[in-house]
Write a structure and sequence with these properties.
single chain; Zinc_finger_SWIM; 10 strands; 3 domains; MULE transposase domain-containing protein; 10 helices; 4-stranded mixed sheet; alpha+beta
Length: 292
């Protein structure tokens, strides 16, 4: 049960339920868990055991140490299947950090890629000492030289200033003209992969349609992401069928070609339903219940 992350108090409750005469306490469970961990480590430190697991399972990984002290500061690792997918689909990568995921309070850095069907895959993970430009420089340079055959076409991040100011391959400021909003990113993804891309956020919700079509837009190919306010990052959303669609990105009408001119009429009912929901909830920053 410990291996499936069941809390000690729940383990103890289960034991007492199965055997009311059992005299174990919470301390008994904690001590046993610690003993199991020590046996698993087999004399290795936690970092050494991590590297052993990565090597045993065929992961590619790289580390960075602090200058002068040789203390481990950053780790980047990629599953072997992810490397194959990265070689085939390096076009769009999403990068973000999640907090409070481990006992060391290190940010867990995640890289997500897109395949041609619009589905996502985990491209890589990392434990980073700081969210600073120099750390991201090491991450991006290492990721590109070790795991990619060609630079990604687009890197999407959310409020990661250390990432925004980097230019792939050559560290340094990126011209402001190359910065990209989530909506602009959505237009690129939907056009590249011939899908519908929808963004839900309390600040601005958008529907992104392809700027051009080489084949008919599939009915079921839709990617939906939502901004998680508490943790300040985007997550993938699984929506109900024919959910209401927010307004179409304003830049779409300025740049689309004739092949997609009829797309708004195809989604008119869903777009109208979203407008009706907004009319009953006029507060501009209030979340919209898309399940209504």
């Amino acid at each position: 049960m410990s291996k499936t992350a069941v809390p000690p108090r729940d383990i103890l409750s289960f034991i007492k339920l199965q055997n009311p005469e059992n005299r174990s306490t919470s301390k008994t469970i904690y001590n046993f868990r610690q003993l199991v961990k020590e046996e698993e480590l087999n004399g290795h430190s936690v970092p050494q055991y991590l590297f052993k697991l990565l090597e045993d399972n065929g992961y590619g990984y790289s580390i960075q140490t602090e200058p002068g002290t040789n203390v481990l500061s950053d780790v980047l690792f990629v599953h072997p299947d992810s490397i194959k997918l990265l070689h085939a689909f390096p076009y769009v990568l999403i990068m973000d950090s999640t907090y409070n995921t481990n006992r060391y309070k290190l940010p867990l850095f995640q890289i997500v890629g897109f395949v041609s069907t619009g589905r996502t895959f985990t491209a890589g993970y990392g434990f980073l000492s700081f969210e600073k430009t120099e750390v991201y420089t090491w991450v991006l340079d290492t990721f590109q030289t070790k795991f990619l055959k060609e630079p990604p076409g687009v890197i999407v991040t959310d409020r990661e200033l250390g990432l925004i100011v980097l230019h792939i391959g050559t560290p340094g400021p990126t011209p402001k003209a190359k910065w990209m909003s989530a909506g602009e990113m959505g237009l690129i993804i939907t056009t590249k992969f011939n899908i519908l891309f929808v963004i839900f956020s309390t600040m601005q919700s958008l529907t992104c349609l392809p700027l051009t079509l080489t084949s008919a837009l599939p009915e079921k190919e839709e990617i939906v992401i939502g901004y998680l306010e508490i943790q300040e990052h985007f997550i993938w959303l699984k929506m109900c069928k024919d959910f209401p669609l927010p307004p179409i990105h304003s830049n779409w009408r300025h740049h689309c070609d004739d092949s997609v001119a009829e797309l708004p009429s195809r989604y008119s009912i869903r777009l109208q339903k979203f407008r009706e929901i907004q009319a009953t909830n006029p507060a501009a920053r209030s979340p919209v219940n898309v399940d209504d």
